[in-house]
Predict the 3D structure of the following.
Amino acid sequence: MTETKKRAAGEGRGQDHLIDVRGVSRVYEQGLSKVYALDDVSVHFDSGEFTAIAGPSGSGKTTLLNVIGALDRPTKGDVRVAGRSIGSLGKSEGAAFRLQNVGFVFQAYNLLPVLSGYENAEFTVSLQKVSPKQRRERVMALLDRVGLAEKAHRRPNELSGGEQQRVAVVRALASRPSIVLADEPTANLDHKTGEALLDLMLELQREHGTTFLFSTHDPVVIDRARRIVRMDSGQIAADERQSEAA
């Protein structure tokens, strides 16, 4: 069990939220002007949430995911995950934190072109020093569930955009992280495949208590989310909860 999972399990003993974003701003300099990708954002997420972060392009959705995942640093404010402040982590500390706790699904896939789909999906798990047998069983089971077992040994340039996206999702899930941060995970998928992928994520959320945060425009994702955080101009515009999806 990772440190984040251990701490999350003890939330009732003093830790209120798995993820706590406190007064965070992320400011970029553009010439003489400043652009607020995030503007004094405060929001929290509990262990096991299945949440859509929705809003127009440029609203701050991806930046919020990046600061939660320690890929970007806040200009102001603090981000705490399982009680640990991550906004000021050094490069090696941030990498170790992500390896043990966070799975990412990037809109641009970020697959390594020299590796097969299987090798891409296995890469993060191998860094966790999981045994080869367990890695293969875990990765192939997930590839089978997304319909790619027969294409496991094809390289990214031999896969369609939607197939590459599914490999990227398997890579994020195979390491069994406490938190999955997914940036438009269904953007390159047809409706049926997108629904199947979300169903898989919901199953894993129920089985393992994984926390899923999605940046999305997709109504399919929004319909399945338990909670919808709506963003506009770098700020939280609304925070809605809805009944459990069917």
